[in-house]
Write a structure and sequence with these properties.
The protein is mostly helical. The protein contains eight helices and no strands.
Length: 159
């Protein structure tokens, strides 16, 4: 199944489009646009002296890394790693690296990855704009809930 034929919400399509085209509003991009000093582009949530990139924002920040590992363990296959998901998202090719999903009768690895990506994106911006704490367990619960909703919606269309 190609990326464009996946039944995705506009939020999911927006996140992946911005990620692929390097247009996620992370500090490094905003610093480049607004000519900010390098210290203004550091990652604000973890307070590390690393330039905030889209990859760090969505994948390599330690609590997000933890969440991806939990998603892999729960829904995908343990031989998958975060790099496989990252590369699949960048190239919109979920069949080459992500070939197995534990619930393959109702889910594809692409859907699991994209729902997770969108929920991580939403949680990140709630943290930034609403000053809420970044809670990986709460976000994992949200990802599980969205996957359950997706499965229920697909069951309705299959009948």
């Amino acid at each position: 199944m190609s990326f464009w034929s996946l039944p995705l919400s506009y939020t999911l399509r927006n996140v992946i489009f911005r990620f692929v085209h390097k247009k996620l509003p992370c500090s490094s991009l905003l610093g480049y646009i607004y000519k900010l000093p390098p210290s203004a582009t550091w990652y604000t949530i973890c307070n590390c002296h690393t330039v905030e990139s889209a990859t760090h924002l969505l994948f390599t920040y330690p609590p997000k890394h933890f969440m991806w590992n939990e998603i892999i363990f729960e829904f995908l296959w343990p031989t998958v790693d975060i790099t496989d998901i990252l590369e699949s998202c960048l190239h919109l090719d979920f069949q080459l690296r992500l070939v197995y999903c534990k619930f393959s009768d109702v889910l594809s690895p692409a859907i699991v990855s994209l729902i997770s990506l969108a929920e991580i994106w939403k949680a990140h911006f709630q943290c930034v704009f609403n000053s809420t704490a970044f809670n990986p367990n709460h976000i994992l619960h949200s990802i599980r809930r969205q996957i359950t909703i997706y499965i229920a919606e697909q069951a309705l269309t299959d009948e």
